[in-house]
Amino acid sequence: MVHEYSKQPWKGLYLAFEVPATLLVRLPVWAVICALPSVLRRSTWSWRHAIALALLRRVSTTAALVGGFGVVPDYRAITPAKDAEGVWIDGVPHLVTAELKVWSTLSGVESIRIPGYWFGKKGFSHVPSSPVQPGEKVFIFFHGGGYTLECAHPVGGTANIVRALIELNPHTPRALSVEYRLSSAHPSPDRHPFPTALLDALAGYNYLVNVVGYSPCDIVAAGDSAGANLALALVRYLVEHRSANEVSLPGPPGHLLLLSPWADLSDSHDTPGSSSLTNTLDFLDDLAKAFLGPHGLGMASCNRYISPASLYPSVVARFNGFPRTFITAGGAERLLDQIRTLKDKMVADMGADKVTYYEATDTTHDWLAFPWDPACPATLTAIQQWLA
Predict the structure, then answer these.
(1) CA 36/CA 23 separation, integer angstroms
(2) Fewer CB within 10 Å: C terminus or N terminus of the chain?
(3) 129 secondary structure, DSSP code
(4) From the centroid of its chain, how far is CA 108?
(5) Residue 74 and residue 79: Cα distance in Å, rounded?
(6) CA 184, CA 305: separation in Å to the nearest integer?
(7) d(CA 143, CA 179)
């Protein structure tokens, strides 16, 4: 169910039906149903919260079907913004080696110039001074959206996360959000499958270290949902090839922040009673097909970069050498079981002292993107303590 109605006139016709149907029919029905104990509401949710989530589920499904709403900034140009500053990030074909080079060749993709957007804490400039102040930390952020939706620009739906993160610690006043290329598949043209986003993430990280001048130990690699999957893949590449002779890679970041990470694109967690099948009030849709492209769905069942939390024995994902990590999960999200598996794997390899896990009771996927979610303040406080 990826962009089935993304082309005109079907997109216009679908939205012409969907919008009034939701506003005039679904919303009144939800208002009545959510006022009573029902399948649309957990006992801890307020009436207003239950309706907001029902609407979010509908909007999320519609966005997946039509390919988003309006014109969304992408990798082809820098779009001006009031609360961020765009920069061009050069491609890094000279840093691509080993399996990443093979996968890139199979997918017919290469590292190119892409935009990134600098966000600055209130009272700070968006772009850091040159040279960077000693000890100043920075976020490199990768947005969610199933690798097929959203953007790094401040108009994106996950920009609220970036704005919140840079206010948490005076020593981490800025974030670079990377405008990685999005995947698409039929009925849209087949574009930018794995490992395109990883190539772009590598370019963004190299820009922070070798252009701006940040020390790797002062970088917090962060992402939500698919963006967290991308942050994991980037760190894995840097860790696994830190001693490679054929390329000179920057060292891995000092910190890793994973917000509702999409850590298993295979079906290994889709078992009876699992969160992926029982947490039906979440708003996630399956968007893996476009991302996997010519590699096929089987690639998710055997690739440690794509599905590091997979339960299949064919995925051997180790986390030795990974930086200290903070992981969030919602108790009502479909990805809950795979996130718990990821946490257990990381603890086994890294030790419990290097992995901090935060699970928000009865909370759905990626809640920090929605400031109205009641779980946001406590979650941000926990991240703030971890950053200190």
Answers:
(1) 20
(2) C
(3) P
(4) 23
(5) 8
(6) 19
(7) 8
The amino acid sitting at 204 is: G
Return the number of other C-beta atoms located less than 10 Å from residue 49's C-beta: 18
**Both structure tokens of 232:** 């994991």
pLDDT (mean) for 158-166: 97
- For residue 18, CA distances in Å to 5, 15, 186 come to 12, 5, 22
User: Which pTM value belongs to this model?
Assistant: 0.95
368: how many CB neighbours lie within 10 A of its CB?
Answer: 24
What's the CA gap between 157 and 367, in Å, rounded?
A: 11
DSSP letters of 78-117? Answer: PPP-SS-EEEEE---GGG--HHHHHHHHHHT-----EEEE
Unique residue bearing structure tokens 């043209």: 189
CA distance 61 to 193: 21
Provide the token pair at 71. Answer: 């014109």
The CA-CA-CA angle for residues 195, 87, 150, to 5°, reads: 50
Q: Is 29 exposed, middle or buried (0-12, 13-18, 19+ CB in 10 A)?
A: exposed
What is the total residue count of the chain?
Answer: 388
pLDDT in tens, 212-271: 999 999 999 999 999 999 999 999 999 999 999 999 999 999 999 999 999 999 999 999
Strand, helix or coil for residue 55: helix
Alpha helices in the chain (DSSP H): 10-21, 27-33, 47-66, 98-107, 159-165, 196-206, 226-240, 275-278, 288-292, 336-350, 376-387
> Please, is 16 exposed, middle or buried when counting C-beta atoms within 10 Å of its C-beta (0-12, 13-18, 19+)?
exposed
Residue 64's pLDDT is 79
Q: Of 171, 85, 177, 178, which Cα lies nearest the Cα of 125?
A: 85
| CA diameter of the chain | 65
If we measure between CA atoms, which residue out of 7, 22, 145, 151 comes closest to residue 66?
7
**Cβ atoms of 295 and 308 closer than 8 Å:** no
* pLDDT band, residue 13 (cuts 50/70/90): confident
3-state secondary structure of 321: coil
Asked if residues 101 and 244 have their Cβ atoms less than 8 Å apart, the reply is no
Q: How many CA atoms lie within 13 A of 195 on its CB side?
A: 30
